[in-house]
Amino acid sequence: MNKSESVTKIFAALVKAQEELKNSFKSATNPHFKSKYSPLDEIINGIKPCLAKHGLAITQDISGDGDRVTISTLIMHESGEWIEQTGLTIKPAKSDAQGTCGAVTYGRRYSLQAALNISSDDDDDGNEASKPAEKTKGDFGKAVESIESAGTAEKLKNIELALDTREWTAQEQLELGKTIKNKRIAMGW
Fold first, then answer.
1. Residue 51 buriedness (CB in 10 A; 0-12 / 13-18 / 19+)
2. pTM above 0.90, yes or no
3. Alpha-carbon distance values, 94 to 67, 180, 189 (Å)
């Protein structure tokens, strides 16, 4: 965390704001996990009036290295004092625009909530996060077809990632590994 030389006024304003800030209403549902959460726009709309009342404003900076995105959250006070929460870094699930933008939105939402000590998700005490990923039975024929039809290296990488979420027999794993290797050679990498 970075901060201005003096933080007396911003800390006093944050104490007052946190007395009034409420955890966000969970109005959206994650279709993959069937969990409720607050969209970023609801969180922002919910906190802005309270922050403004106490002379506070927030801005978020997004940077990246081509593989991961990093979100920094800056809380500013009208006195010129500031606090910056730095370095929430996320690797997008997919390496395309949709995956990157999804990671940015997710990162902004959680960085903002952490900076203001509010929550919008159900707290399961880390139970879901600590469970191993559940694999589903894979369709071997479709997997081979998708590998063989991959037109770009990026598409092949995405297929490989998707294959990791499936359950394969030892023989299927060997065959898929050979198919991927042969496709890589054919693509020149």
1. buried
2. no
3. 10, 19, 20
